[in-house]
Amino acid sequence: MSLTFDRTDTSLLGRWWWTVDRWTLAALLLLMGIGCVLIITASPSVANRIGMETFGLVKRQLVWLPLALVVLFVASLATPRWVRRLSVVALLGSIFLLALTLVIGTEIKGATRWISFAGLSVQPAEFAKPFFAVTLAWVLATGKQEDFPGIMVASGLWLLVASLLALQPDVGQTAIITGIFLVQLFLAGLPMFWVLGLGIMAISAFMGAYFTMPHVTERVNAFLNPEAGDRYQIGRSLEAFMNGGLWGRGPGEGTIKQYLPDAHADFIFAVAGEELGLIACLIIVSLFAFIVLRGFARLLHEESLFVLLAATGLLVQFGFQALINMGSTLHLMPTKGMTLPFISYGGSSLVALALGMGMLLALTRRRAGTESEEP
């Protein structure tokens, strides 16, 4: 049986194959492959430290991976209309779960971000981000095309979601939500005065977090003044890059993962630096940059404001999250617990990112004009 499709093939898979951005899809799959390699090398040491079976974390991640692949593929088959419908309904569910997290969530390291049930732990914030980006795009696009207070509703949604995230507290996720909101407002044609005003308000909120949240104060002070706080993790992280050199010590040969508590998650880029080297790290960075820039290139001639805003929001989320993780690991910004998309350990993050990128592939497929014009 042939796995190739002729251009005249009008089946669902045939149309999908010839309209989806195969280069972006290939880059996403390559990131997943790199993530599998790094999880296999980084997580056994972590598992042993917390009393698990040596490959317990690896097995957990490999259970989530097939689901993520299915979610990525199925989401990429959707039309813009179905992407919008799914996101609006799912965002309401995500907001409910974010609120529920504050009541029955599991506290880990002083933050309440997880809901545990049936032996599984889910982080609602991971799913809220892509649904927020698409729903906000629909609200703003509708406000531009109809008699609808799009900016007011969008601002209310942002304030609600950002407040729930800040209460967990989760400053990193709040920053991503805020970044999506500001970029989409700018693209929707909001006067620069209002964009700057909202930006100043967001900066003021983060300054407030610095003065009222001790863990934020500690991390910012440690970044600005190395002598002011605990530099153990970031010191080990930078040591890993120095040990790795140009070509790395080889998969599984690194030692930093034995000391970094979050070597399989927040600091997995440091494991890549030590075991795979500078060249591999540059390839990883290039893959993230390629996906984001390729996505924007596909939108250059997009006529649907909804598609433009939604896809941009998803790209901002993806790129900003990668930037925060790698920047924290390299001590280019204060440390912040944030997964590296498709590479760090975490089932919620993996599936949510697959859903978001699947929706991006769906929105950037080449279609007849009538299929992508509706908001």
From TrEMBL:
<feature type="transmembrane region" description="Helical">
    <location>
        <begin position="267"/>
        <end position="293"/>
    </location>
</feature>
<feature type="transmembrane region" description="Helical">
    <location>
        <begin position="305"/>
        <end position="324"/>
    </location>
</feature>
<keyword id="KW-0132">Cell division</keyword>
<keyword id="KW-0131">Cell cycle</keyword>
<dbReference type="Pfam" id="PF01098">
    <property type="entry name" value="FTSW_RODA_SPOVE"/>
</dbReference>
<keyword id="KW-0812">Transmembrane</keyword>
<dbReference type="InterPro" id="IPR001182">
    <property type="entry name" value="FtsW/RodA"/>
</dbReference>
<feature type="transmembrane region" description="Helical">
    <location>
        <begin position="149"/>
        <end position="167"/>
    </location>
</feature>
<feature type="transmembrane region" description="Helical">
    <location>
        <begin position="23"/>
        <end position="42"/>
    </location>
</feature>
<dbReference type="InterPro" id="IPR013437">
    <property type="entry name" value="FtsW"/>
</dbReference>
<keyword id="KW-0808">Transferase</keyword>
<feature type="transmembrane region" description="Helical">
    <location>
        <begin position="62"/>
        <end position="80"/>
    </location>
</feature>
<keyword id="KW-1003">Cell membrane</keyword>
<feature type="transmembrane region" description="Helical">
    <location>
        <begin position="344"/>
        <end position="363"/>
    </location>
</feature>
<feature type="transmembrane region" description="Helical">
    <location>
        <begin position="179"/>
        <end position="211"/>
    </location>
</feature>
<protein>
    <recommendedName>
        <fullName>Probable peptidoglycan glycosyltransferase FtsW</fullName>
        <ecNumber>2.4.99.28</ecNumber>
    </recommendedName>
</protein>
<feature type="transmembrane region" description="Helical">
    <location>
        <begin position="86"/>
        <end position="106"/>
    </location>
</feature>
<keyword id="KW-1133">Transmembrane helix</keyword>
<keyword id="KW-0133">Cell shape</keyword>
<keyword id="KW-0573">Peptidoglycan synthesis</keyword>
<comment type="similarity">
    <text>Belongs to the SEDS family. FtsW subfamily.</text>
</comment>
<keyword id="KW-0472">Membrane</keyword>
<keyword id="KW-0328">Glycosyltransferase</keyword>
<keyword id="KW-0961">Cell wall biogenesis/degradation</keyword>
<comment type="pathway">
    <text>Cell wall biogenesis; peptidoglycan biosynthesis.</text>
</comment>
